[in-house]
């Protein structure tokens, strides 16, 4: 391009540049206003969030306070009454069937001068012989310490195995005609995966120090020696169970070859066999047997803090591992 065609006029350059908007002040102001509104909305949302969080914490604190303290004040205010303790579910190291849960309730119920008798309502398919045995030992101790305060068991749907292990220590057992009662036996269950592993070409690499350290490992073949040892343990625990039933039921028990075989029966049949004493509910036992219609619940209910901690705590992983290997221990169920 020649120098003659070059436009060096500065006025022409200013004319070619875009003219600034005549409303730039208004646009800038609008942007500032919108930004301020957004900040205020965000601040308002965070304020609502923190206020709701505070209210929830306050609500939980009040709930926990009444959960721990309200029941005890009711007990102190009443006179003669029937003390109630509930076992609902499996007899395990946690929950309403755990020894650490039942025993404090038993001690509180027996030691209360206003309790005329203790009623243990059981709805359990069984569970740990250890937990059941600990509870039975404590019942026997308390019965010696409070000879004039009877302990009755009322069966709801089912009282089998470990549940009946505990019930047998009571002075009397009351059932519904259709309740499931009995199952005086012990089992140890699990699975063996060796055949499936062979088909899949999976090799089990288990290293142990001790010939029987891998006892009942589900991924290893079961030896006759280990099986015999397991059966001996089960028979020993079964004899302990039988001894508790015989001691608790005494001459009321009409023994047959099948009564300790692990079978269970209806409540009506259990009464005939001497496994139970009669028909009744908590209300009828309190009214007609104890003669104290006021019923006070001594069951140690889990408080809100424990429920929250268990729900969000790190015990979930441990519980999963525990459930995987639960079949490798004897069980009354």
From TrEMBL:
Residues 148-290 form the Peptidase S49 domain. Gene3D superfamilies: 2-enoyl-CoA Hydratase, Chain A, domain 1. The keyword Hydrolase applies. It comes from the Bacteria. Residues 1-11 have a biased composition (Basic and acidic residues). Residues 1-22 are annotated as: Disordered. Keywords: Hydrolase, Membrane, Protease, Serine protease, Transmembrane, Transmembrane helix. The chain crosses the membrane at residues 48-66. PANTHER family: PEPTIDASE S49, PROTEINASE. Belongs to the peptidase S49 family. This is S49 family peptidase. It comes from Telluria antibiotica. The lineage of its organism: Bacteria, Pseudomonadati, Pseudomonadota, Betaproteobacteria, Burkholderiales.
């Amino acid at each position: 391009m020649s120098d003659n065609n070059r436009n060096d006029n500065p006025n022409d350059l200013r004319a070619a540049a875009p003219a600034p908007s005549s409303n730039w002040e208004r646009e800038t102001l609008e942007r500032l206003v919108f930004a301020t509104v957004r900040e205020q909305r965000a601040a308002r949302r965070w304020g609502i969030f923190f206020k709701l969080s505070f209210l929830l914490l306050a609500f939980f604190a009040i709930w926990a306070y009444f959960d721990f303290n309200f029941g005890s004040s009711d007990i102190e205010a009443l006179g003669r009454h029937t003390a109630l303790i509930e076992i609902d579910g499996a007899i395990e190291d946690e929950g309403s069937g755990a020894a650490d849960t039942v025993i404090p309730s038993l001690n509180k119920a027996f030691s209360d001068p206003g309790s005329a008798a203790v009623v243990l309502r059981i709805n359990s398919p069984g569970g740990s012989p250890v937990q059941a045995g600990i509870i039975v030992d404590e019942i026997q101790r308390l019965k010696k310490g409070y000879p004039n305060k009877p302990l009755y068991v009322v069966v709801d749907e089912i009282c089998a195995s470990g549940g009946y292990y505990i019930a047998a220590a009571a002075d009397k057992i009351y059932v519904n005609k259709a309740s499931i009662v009995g199952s005086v036996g012990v089992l140890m269950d699990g699975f063996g995966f060796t055949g499936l592993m062979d088909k899949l070409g999976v090799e089990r690499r288990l290293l142990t120090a001790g010939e029987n350290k891998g006892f009942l490992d589900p991924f290893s073949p079961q030896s006759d020696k280990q099986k015999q040892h397991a059966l001996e343990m089960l028979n020993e625990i079964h004899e302990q169970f039988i001894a508790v039933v015989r001691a608790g039921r005494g001459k009321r028990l009409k023994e047959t070859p099948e009564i300790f075989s692990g079978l269970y029966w209806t409540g009506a049949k259990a009464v005939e066999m001497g496994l139970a004493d009669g028909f009744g509910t908590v209300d009828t036992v309190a009214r007609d047997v104890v003669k104290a219609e006021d019923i006070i619940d001594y069951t140690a209910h889990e408080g809100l803090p424990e429920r929250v901690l268990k729900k969000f705590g790190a015990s979930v992983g441990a519980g999963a591992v525990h459930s995987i290997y639960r079949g490798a221990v004897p069980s009354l169920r």
